[in-house]
């Protein structure tokens, strides 16, 4: 590997190490995606492996391409970021145009995870966090927990959690400093009119549909920030590629 330095053209060390630093930050952002647990029909281990492969590939191409001034790696990195950017844009547009389809997929996702609630601790944490943060219970209401064998109200169930809901569905008691994980036991045996005294009765789909309009500026701001970060990475990669090509062109002359 040869490095060319001439007075009329040279590779900018500023752009080189800025792109290297950018990759470290971008790598950290992608690593947060591994915290997402099971999606509908996808094993969490497979998801983590897929994200890990993307992280390693982009990180390797960006960091090594910048430090070694390798045009092929930099072009690959730039093209991958452009592809991710347009995929995100396409997903956002399609989600807006096909809201009913998105709502149905989220319902399937939530119901599938309700069935597997006790099978995976990470899955429990995901559902509990979602229900507590949005003060909701189930996809469309507490009755959705009949889908889970442990919370089902049928006579065939001998679970202690029968006709109950997870503790994350419970209305919090300010006087309690310790979380009562049994607060949802037997709550659905009572009259439905009394449920709202003990648990959240709103479904999480309705809660999220109400949350989005109230926080549209935050969502838009996050999307714009991520987009600008990606555009900045594309700019750095293209600038560094131009510098390297200019140096090589000067060398040939």
Q: How would you explain this protein's 3D organization?
A:
The chain has 253 residues and is an all-alpha fold. It has one domain (13-141, 202-251). 59% of the residues lie in helices and 0% in strands. It has helices at 13-31, 44-68, 71-97, 99-115, 121-134, 204-214, 216-252. α1 (13-31) runs antiparallel to α2 (44-68), α1 packs antiparallel against α7 and α2 packs across α3.
Name a few traits of the molecule:
253 residues, mainly alpha, 7 helices, 0% strand, elongated, disordered N terminus, Tetraspanin/Peripherin, transmembrane, Tetraspanin_EC2_sf, Tetraspanin
Calculate the terminal CA-CA distance, rounded to whole Å. Answer: 19 Å
Per the principal axes of the C-alpha atoms, what is the gross shape? Answer: elongated
Arithmetic mean pLDDT:
80
Q: Tally the helices: what do you get?
A: 7
**Helix-residue proportion:** 55-70%
* Rounded radius of gyration (Å): 25 Å
Number of domains: 1
Main sheet record: none
Q: Spans of 5+ residues with little confidence (pLDDT < 50)?
A: 1-8, 33-41
Order of helices and strands: HHHHHHH
- Count every beta strand, where a strand is a DSSP E run of 2 or more residues: 0
Structural class by helix and strand composition? mainly alpha
Percent range for β-strand residues: under 5%
């Amino acid at each position: 590997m040869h490095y060319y330095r001439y007075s009329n053209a040279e590779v900018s060390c500023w752009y080189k190490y800025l792109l290297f630093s950018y990759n470290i930050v971008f790598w950290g952002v992608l690593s947060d995606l591994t915290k997402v647990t099971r999606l509908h029909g996808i094993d969490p281990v497979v998801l983590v492996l897929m994200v890990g492969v993307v992280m390693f590939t982009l990180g390797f191409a960006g960091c090594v391409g910048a430090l070694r001034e390798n045009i092929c790696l930099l072009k690959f990195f730039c093209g991958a970021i452009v592809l991710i950017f347009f995929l995100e844009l396409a997903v956002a547009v399609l989600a807006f145009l096909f809201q009913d389809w998105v709502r149905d997929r989220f319902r399937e996702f939530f119901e599938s995870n309700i069935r597997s609630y006790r099978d995976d601790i990470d899955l429990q944490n995901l559902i509990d966090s979602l229900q507590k943060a949005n003060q909701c219970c189930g996809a469309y209401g507490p009755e959705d927990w009949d889908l889970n064998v442990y919370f089902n109200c049928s006579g065939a169930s001998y679970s202690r959690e029968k006709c109950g809901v997870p503790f994350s569905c419970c209305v919090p008691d300010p006087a309690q400093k310790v979380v009562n994980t049994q607060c949802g036991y037997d709550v659905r045996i009572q009259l439905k009119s009394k449920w709202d005294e003990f648990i959240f009765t709103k479904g999480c789909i309705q809660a999220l549909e109400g949350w989005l309009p109230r926080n549209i500026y935050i969502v838009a701001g996050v999307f714009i920030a991520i987009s600008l970060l990606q555009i900045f990475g594309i700019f750095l990669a293209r600038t560094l590629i131009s510098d390297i090509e200019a140096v090589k062109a000067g060398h040939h002359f």
